[in-house]
Amino acid sequence: MTDISMDTVAGAVPRPRRDIGLKRRYAAERRFRIYGMLAISVGLIFLAIMLFSIVSKGYTAFWQTTVSLPINFDEKILDPDNKRATDPSVLISANYPKLAENALVAKLGINPDDKVTIRKLKGFLSDGARTQLRDVVAADPSVIGTTRNVDILAAANLDSAFKGQIDLNVDEARRKVSDQQVIWMKQLTTDGSMAERFNTGLFTFGASSRPETSGMGVAIIGSFYMMVIVLLLALPIGVAASIYLEEFAKKGRLTDLIEVNINNLAAVPSIVFGLLGLSVFINFLGLPRSAAFVGGLVLTLMTLPTIIIATRAALAAVPPSIRSAALGLGASKMQMVFQHILPLAAPGILTGTIIGLARALGETAPLLLIGMVAFVANYPTTPFEPATALPVQIYMWANEAERAFVERMSGAIIILLIFLMAMNITAIVLRRRFERRW
Amino acid sequence: MNIMTEKALESAVSDKMSGTPNEIIKMRGNKVGVFYGEKQALFDVDLDVRENQVTALIGPSGCGKSTFLRCLNRMNDTIDSARVTGKITLDNEDIYDKNIDVVELRARVGMVFQKPNPFPKSIYENVAYGPRIHGLAKKKSDMDHVVETSLKKAGLFNEVKDRLLEPGTGLSGGQQQRLCIARAIAVSPEVILMDEPCSALDPIATARVEELIDELRQNYTIVIVTHSMQQAARVSQRTAMFHLGYLVEEGATDKMFTNPDDKRTQDYITGRFG
User: Fold this and answer.
1) What SUPFAM superfamilies does this protein map onto (chain A) (predicted)?
2) ipTM above 0.85, yes or no
3) What does the pLDDT look like over A389-426, one tens digit per residue?
4) Residues A294 and A349 both lie in one domain
5) DSSP designation for A245
6) For B110, which of A321, A328, A339 is closest by C-beta distance?
7) What is the pLDDT of residues B148-197, one digit of tens each?
8) What's the total number of domains in chain A?
9) Rounded (10°) angle between helices B140-153 and B123-133
10) SS3 content of chain B, % helix, strand, coil (to 5)
């Protein structure tokens, strides 16, 4: 007994340490951590720069300078011959800008006979005043002959000047607002009638050559139509194809070939899909140009591979034990797929679909080819009428030179990013929520 | 299992009921062979499964016992490359015959798997699923009855009767496996195949499932694959020993464990190989 206990004590003498390269190994790990943090920092810095530049340029797009004027809907100007009861076109082509001009002249206290000064008012109010006032009359013809306060849009240059985007210290000849206009602007600002208001027009107006009356209304509707079409077509087709390939098709050379092709399609540049849409849907099938329907079809083709790949992965992730359990009970293959596999794969399918949709929402190139880069001023009431899309609208505004368009472009980018972020967050939340661990 | 002594085996064998009054052949395998692609996994197996008895299939890993079991309800059909030769009958009908529908066959020959695999649904839904797809219980009250009796037969009812609507995946491993057994018997099969049903369970849960198997024998014919010699000795009346894809020998369990004909069986059950 004592011998044994002596031995145990003797064994406790520390052995000389071996060099197993611990220092080197820990150093390597530290280096790797630093590389990782560097990589992430670089990514985050660029993201921050991008977001900052977009937001700093674009946030003003959500505000629009307007001048609140008491407009006298003077019958003598609108309908001098009093024919509006018999000829409705009179009210459509009436001289509305004159109403706004008169109101502004009165507001500024200019002598109505001082034609020289009045001429300097040109370019103070937007030409959009014509539509604004016409809409007021169209909505309520009884307004004729009365006076009503209307927030008239300021012209783009005045809007920029009001927002401080035009350097007023530059020589008058080299800037787009005259000294006289600046004086008036200050006068109207002081009495409170000229102010920035939330720019609802950015969301409702269609295309226009004037920045202050152009908006993303048509683009939002076009993108919405396309998303609906993509969802209605790509989801059922993609899911059906995946289920067949994954669960029913006999694995063989043909399914391998199809799989390679699907993966290939997912990597095909989107402009090729645009060319395909142009030649098949527009030239061969004779579908209308610039229509959201064709855009939706092209984006469907583009999104299908993404959805099929995501769906197949989600189906394959359902453990074989569930399949065995269902089949072992005597469920038919169809029952197994639709009562067990598909519900379990649904979150994965949904996530893939949303990510595919988000990609389709941001897609521009194929839409250019099928003519969705068009000047569309009126809302498309059906998907077969000309429309544009959000990214295409950004592209079109990016081609304009005026400062006010740059602002709108950045505003549109912010809105598109918000849409994309909302979709991706939805995808992540769904995945987190329904993720199942086996 | 290698440390088991022959003495322990003998006592295990003598504990269980011996002597079998009726010896009706429920299922019969005749020269059954299975190929996975080019590779042959099972060779010329002739094996009878007797009604209302527990037949244990034993043998080292990869010997083909699970493969044979999966032939009995054609689960091998789900593997594209698998091909079955020979003939397997259920009540003298060839189950690989064109006239036999595989869905109907699986309603008659149920299966319990190695890993408990309840559906990620409620306990009630797990048991009700089989009867529902086969249209066995039309009314809600009938279904309630089927679910209750199945859970009772599986010895699980008292443990879960207050939480039938909770997910089956929330039960313990042993309870899950008994739920899977309840799910299998809910469609009133004639034969129940069990593929190592206790390998994922602790000894107490194993004991409960073994008791259950012995009770179920009254109403069902059971074929069980097991790696545990004690389990085979405790629960089965007949034992079949597989090795390298061949059936080595088959016979009454007490004879197999005390006086096997084949040297390989002797070596395996005494833990000299496998």
Assistant:
1) MetI-like
2) no
3) 999 999 999 988 788 888 899 999 999 999 999 999 98
4) yes
5) I
6) A328
7) 999 988 888 999 989 999 999 999 988 999 999 999 999 999 999 999 99
8) 2
9) 110
10) 40, 25, 35
